[in-house]
Design goal:
Helices cover 34% and strands 16% of the residues. It is an alpha+beta fold. Strands 1, 2, 3, 4, 5, 6 and 7 form a seven-stranded mixed beta sheet that branches. The structure holds 2-acetamido-2-deoxy-beta-D-glucopyranose.
């Protein structure tokens, strides 16, 4: 092996130590499920009938989400600029990436997501691009963004038509979601019991620069609360936060 080759390996190893991830999971959440947790108090203002952003999480090639090491002190200061210096972006973030927790502010939620999952993407996505990219995908300027498209496909498939505990097979949800992107995605659930679970999050996977959707890697985590592949729970999409 030549020295140059060795040097390259070392160089690549060093530069990628903070961004050693395979893809970015673009995670959207279904607030009624989270607001239904006992002990969770949701803001009354939360619209419990639409998807909102949860976060953008780097993931590895076996589908695990990675947490970043703690960012250096004071890095919050420049991250805050992302919303403090751009009123339009702040409004978009409040609209589409709200916290539902009564005791938290949206800004705390955004900062938490950036510290835990955004900081280590900083070589491919500096802070501004992390949030800007999120809004580009979620809301898509004048076009229809991911959040609205998922909701529309669920509406078309009749998934929001009932105020009861209709339970769906995983495939009943994956089919409409396949019309949003044809790539492999993950669904995560909060288990109710051995047979039923509530829809929690949907993970779309994107490349490291958040420019295009990619297949989420085959993962042995198919449980994600929805049950293992050979015994999947049926999934309830609650429409009200007081449903359970
Ligand atoms: C992905 O991350 C998980 C959890 O940290 C780890 O157990 C697994 O080995 C990782 N997979 C690869 C391919 O690095």
């Amino acid at each position: 092996m030549s020295e140059i080759y060795l040097f390259l390996i070392m160089f690549i190893g060093l530069t990628s130590c903070q961004s050693d991830f395979n893809h970015l999971a673009f995670v959207i959440q279904w607030p009624p499920t989270l607001c239904g947790y006992s002990g969770v108090h949701c803001k009354p203002s939360i619209d419990t009938q639409r998807f909102t952003m949860h976060g953008i999480w780097p993931g590895n090639s076996t589908g695990h989400s990675l947490e970043c090491s703690l960012p250096p002190q004071h890095s919050e200061d420049y991250v805050k600029d992302v919303w403090e210096k751009d009123a339009n972006r702040a409004k978009q973030l409040h609209d589409h990436w709200p916290t539902f927790l009564l005791t938290n502010t949206d800004e705390e939620f955004w900062m938490h997501e950036w510290e835990v999952h955004g900081y280590c993407t900083k070589q491919t996505l500096p802070a501004a691009d992390y949030f800007q990219g999120a809004m580009r995908v979620a809301v898509a300027g004048k076009g229809k963004g991911l959040l609205a498209r998922v909701r529309d496909e669920f509406l078309t498939a009749g998934i929001f038509s009932k105020y009861d505990e209709t339970a769906y097979k995983m495939t009943d949800l994956l089919i409409p979601l396949g019309k949003v992107t044809s790539k492999k995605i993950y669904i995560s659930c909060t288990p109710k019991d051995d047979f039923f679970a509530y829809l929690k999050d949907i993970h779309f996977c994107m490349d490291k620069t958040m420019r295009r959707f990619v297949d989420c890697p085959a993962a042995n985590l198919d449980t994600r609360g929805c049950g293992p592949i050979y015994r999947q729970r049926k999934i309830i999409v609650p429409l009200r936060k007081d449903i359970y």
